[in-house]
Amino acid sequence: MCGRYSFFMPVEDAAQILGVGVVPNPDWQPLYNAAPSLPMPVITNEFPDVIQFFKWGLVPQWAKDPSFGMKMVNTRSESILEKPSFRNIFKYKRCVVLCSGYYEWQALPGQVSEKGKKGKPIKQPWRFYNPADDLILLAGLWDHWGHEGLKTFSVITCEANADTKAIHDRMPVILSYDEARQWLEKGSDFESLTQLLKQAPEGLLQSYKVSRYVNKAGNEGPEVIEPIPENI
């Protein structure tokens, strides 16, 4: 799953690259360690010409309460095709999530923490990024919930490609700029949209180890993405 990511490009710069506007959010700051429940920039198929800020963690209209969003940080591409409840959202409420890079955790063989009776495997965080482009576009779903119209989103994931599967068996669905436009087109048919739910091309992403400083939600700043030596 993709449980943390970053977006630290000035949102106005991203808007200029994509040729869209921005709904102002004076409280938002670029984040190196974005965690679920935080507002993050997205572009929806409802308003494809503007960047908005939705909370990360999808709360569908049919959810009983907003806490459901913590279960829906990611949506598996397979679920979209198999479950009717997600197929309707997929048809009408798609979004593009703006991203600078994302994190995954690799279990270290034979290493466990001393906490608890059994101990938990120690995991090494890695950062994935595109060295050719500071702006990565992820496929997502969105919805609004309740009388107050809570707007939330989820990142769609697929099976990992050869570049990433040694670290984790899933990866976010990454869209090219042209694919992102197709993803947001209201008239796109189901078959053409499902064809976009695929692994990123091999060689697109690079990765490196980062400090466990990223593990704690709230730890923020450029130090989060600093690489650490390979032998650690």
Keyword list:
232 residues, 5 helices, 14 strands, 35% strand, globular
Q: Would you kindly provide a brief summary of this structure?
A:
The chain has 232 residues and is of the alpha+beta class. Helices cover 16% and strands 35% of the residues.
Model description:
This protein is α+β, with helices and mostly antiparallel strands. It is 16% helix and 35% strand. The protein has 5 helices and 14 strands. It has helices spanning 11-18, 77-82, 84-92, 177-184, 190-194, and strands at 4-7, 21-22, 31-34, 39-44, 50-56, 74-76, 94-99, 101-112, 121-129, 136-145, 150-159, 170-172, 174-175, 206-209. A 5-stranded antiparallel β-sheet has the order 3-1-8-9-14, with no helix packed on it. Strand 4 and strand 5 form a beta hairpin. The longest helix has 9 residues, at 84-92. The chain is globular and about 50 Å long. The chain starts with a strand and ends in a 23-residue tail after the last strand. The mean pLDDT is 91.
